[in-house]
Design goal:
Keywords: Membrane, Transmembrane, Transmembrane helix. This protein is mainly alpha-helical. The protein has one helix at 16-58. The protein is 73% helix and 0% strand.
């Protein structure tokens, strides 16, 4: 059973442009969908409760 040598790779920090591109991708991929779902969930129950209230008044 041969032993493998561990190779240590040096990783340099990302440049400013690459950091900004990653931040923009995170905004588009995470923040906007979560914000949209929260906004949609807040709007739907209020409209359904409003329709229930108007139905009670009409009856």
């Amino acid at each position: 059973m041969p032993l493998r040598r561990v190779v240590v790779m040096e990783v340099e920090p990302p440049s400013v442009v690459r950091y900004l591109i990653g931040a923009a991708m995170m905004m588009l991929g995470v923040v906007l969908p979560v914000g949209y779902m929260m906004f949609r969930n807040k709007r739907v129950p209020s409209s359904s409760s409003y329709s229930k209230q108007t139905n009670k008044v009409l009856i």
